[in-house]
Amino acid sequence: VERENVQKRTFTRWMNLHLGKCKPPLKVKDLFIDIRDGKILMALLEVLSGQKLMHEYKSSTHRIFRLNNIAKALKFLEDSNVKLVSIDAAEIADGNSSLVLGLIWNIILFFQIKELTGNLNRNSSSSSLSSGPSGPESDTSYPSTPSVERNMSITVRDQRKAIRALLVWVQRKTRKYGVAVQDFASSWRSGLAFLAIIKAIDSTLVDMKHALEKSSRENLEDAFSIAQNKLSVPRLLEPEDLMVESPDEQSIVTYVAQFLEHFPELEGEDFTDPDKELPIESTYVHIKDTPSEKEGKILILSESEENMYTVNHERSHPAPPKVHIHDIPE
User: Fold this and answer.
1) Residue 281 lies in a domain
2) Domain of 209?
3) Which residue ranges are recorded for the region named Disordered (predicted)?
4) Mind listing the pLDDT tens digit for each residue in 86-143?
């Protein structure tokens, strides 16, 4: 329920960004209700694709016309090679929450993330990332028609690469500020990853050392506010969306992709050699002396001292002034 509420809020905000371009502008108030007659769905696809769909919309309170509107929208998606699994017009007309969210995620993935990461995808290697979001990758079922199966499987593979490319881009932008981003989930809870991306775009907007003295909530609020007010990146998330045990990957991906949309000139940077190590500008970890029985280790506390890491170190040498943590803590 928590994840569903976060997705609903994030996806609604994302949709309203695009529906505001309609003439007259449209707005989603309750996604699961407003999508039922097909109008919102057809209008969104028209804005995203640049193709005319609304002329086929029939306004009616009768279920058969609502189903017909939704069916036309789904047919348009299928013709565009957007893979839809177990999503039919009746489920959308009934406001089935999980399938509505699944439908909108597929639209976001295809029309925004896949397109925005196109340059990254061409210049980066999909093998440079050891792991990524499990959502699109976990779906391996395809239609039975051979020609359709081939087209659809390519689309799914492209979607996986798009998310990988976005994560690699994030890692490139945040690594030099000592922020290790492993995924589109827990890596973002502290707010430092968002701040590091902003700093990579405009170094005058963020003081990373000062951020370490703040709480996760404060850093998240700062990041979302700065991105919206200084960089015109629409605010799709709230701090409480991230301050949970398992932040929603799809919502984070949707928000982070906006930085590419607003700053496309950054897309191809550093992607000719995805395995090249970038210099670390700072690491922002606190090094503490350890008891004598643990002489071979240095205890490193993350910001807020929520997680502890240890690294091997010869005590005969002075402690290093900078330490970069590459792996996930044990």
Assistant:
1) no
2) 1-122+156-267
3) 124-153
4) 888 999 999 999 999 999 998 998 888 876 666 444 444 332 322 333 333 333 332 3
